[in-house]
Write a structure and sequence with these properties.
single chain, five-stranded mixed barrel, elongated
């Protein structure tokens, strides 16, 4: 009996010791993953969010907190970011550290909870151009629908008052819409003619803020109610910043200009030179970040390459503006455009009209400005100015014996090669550079010289072939 009592006493002592010394397995502290968005909303910010969400899932984070301070940015990037937030399997919260304007407001409204620093503001989501002027109503309409749909995505609260049950939006879609459209009037909040921007206190009152905090720690401990927690912050790499820079729409248009200009000038000169190197480099810089991010698929790059080959085929094999040239130009533009669209192979169901329009605009601006710059540079080569040394400006007709060529006018000969429209002709047993003025002329055809110029003879099919 005494032995049993001693064992029981020992077991109780061990249990007490382990408990009081903390040797029992305590549950892990919750992991909060923080993503800083403190710049213009653009492709770089979009990459930060995507990479951060992916890493948070890999680490098994309990919550994601966006530390936001932005005046807005690209609508397309904001749309992609708010979609990623809405469908994130991990709840995403946002701490607005001063500003959540325009695209920042859209991103904030997509989050599960919104916390704001005292004195911060949210709203002013009207779509504008670089000069600050509002864009046409079709763009405002699209932004209104996104703001409304994002607010509606959070659903409604069920309110019971006695026997009455009512449903109230967690975030009022009309208030979200008023941040875009100044025609919307909401009693006691905003009059018609004013675009809505809310202070932190106003946002708290109208359901667009869930708490006012002074720091990230304040948000986590006071509102997310994690007394102890682990905080992991996303750290962007230099490659993330480079990809974001290369995916900027303005730079993409410039790269398209270099591609078009490089192809044109390379076709004007023999061999492979600087224009080819410039065009190839620009194409790599254009497609590489899109391919890495999963936007440009193999088949879209292949469409671009096939288009280039068709253009070369048209120029060197079957000269003249024909089917191959037109098809090649269309394929080049199609390849450049589709690489910017986030489609799944040939499925465009999830691609919105704004994204397609933006992609087409970027490519058309690049192609149009590229052609314009190409024509301007072509007109300046050989003239006065910085480009005067890029071309030979000597009179070739003076360098070649004009009497020799002028004596050939009216003489007949044969084509030594196919004229497409240029090639070689034989006159009195001597080979000359010849240019057809009668379209394509087959090899061995009888021709007559009608004029000369630039050290070449211009020929037509002679009556002997008729």
């Amino acid at each position: 009996m005494n032995r049993t009592l001693v064992k029981a006493t020992i077991y109780c002592f061990i249990a007490w010791f382990v408990t009081t010394t903390g040797m029992t397995a305590a549950p892990d502290s919750p992991l909060v993953y923080k993503i800083d968005i403190k710049k213009e909303i653009d492709k770089t910010s979009q990459i930060y969010l995507y990479k951060g969400l992916t890493e948070a899932q890999a680490l098994g984070a309990d919550a994601i907190l966006l530390h936001l301070n932005t005046y807005g940015g690209l609508l397309e990037s904001a749309d992609s970011m708010r979609t990623a937030i809405l469908y994130s399997p991990i709840p995403v919260y946002v701490f607005v550290d001063n500003n959540a304007a325009s695209a920042g407001a859209l991103i904030s409204i997509a989050c599960k909870k919104i916390y704001m620093r005292k004195g911060a503001s949210i709203g002013a989501a009207t779509v504008v151009i670089q000069t600050g002027e509002g864009m046409p109503d079709k763009y405002q309409s699209y932004m209104r629908s996104m703001m409304r749909a994002t607010a509606e995505a959070h659903g409604k609260d069920t309110l019971i008052h006695g026997r009455d049950t009512t449903f109230e939006w967690i975030r009022d879609p009309k208030i979200a819409e008023a941040m875009v459209d100044n025609r919307i009037s909401i009693p006691h909040l905003v009059d018609s003619g004013k675009t809505l921007t809310l202070t932190s206190e106003e946002a708290l009152k109208w359901g667009f803020c869930d708490g006012i905090a002074e720091s990230v720690d304040d948000v986590i401990t006071k509102y997310m109610q994690y007394d102890t927690y682990k905080l992991k912050t996303y750290t962007p790499s230099w490659l993330d910043n480079l990809k974001g820079f290369l995916m900027n729409p303005i730079l993409q248009s410039l790269l398209i200009m270099i591609i078009i200009g490089g192809i044109y000038f390379e076709l004007q000169t023999p061999g492979v030179g600087f224009p080819s190197i410039a065009a190839i480099t620009a194409a790599v810089l254009y497609f590489a970040p899109l391919y890495v991010e999963g936007l440009a698929a193999n088949w879209e790059i292949l469409v671009f390459v096939i288009g280039l080959l068709l253009i070369v085929f048209e120029l060197f094999v079957i000269p003249g503006l024909g089917v191959a040239g037109i098809a090649g130009a269309l394929l080049v533009i199609t390849g450049l455009t589709l690489a910017l669209v986030n489609n799944m192979n040939f499925d465009f169901e999830q691609v919105n009209g704004f994204e397609i329009g933006r992609s087409i605009l970027v490519v058309l601006v690049g192609v149009t400005v590229g052609f314009g710059a190409m024509l301007w540079v072509s007109s300046r080569i050989g003239a006065k100015g910085a480009l005067r040394k890029l071309a030979l400006v000597a009179d070739l007709e003076e360098a070649v014996s004009s009497p020799v060529l002028s004596a050939l006018i009216g003489k007949e000969g044969k084509t030594a090669t196919v004229l497409r429209p240029s090639g070689k002709v034989i006159i009195d047993g001597v080979y000359y550079d010849g240019v057809s003025e009668s379209g394509f002329i087959e090899k061995g055809a009888n021709v007559v010289v009608v004029r000369f110029g630039n050290a070449q003879v211009y020929v037509e099919i002679s009556d002997a072939n008729k």
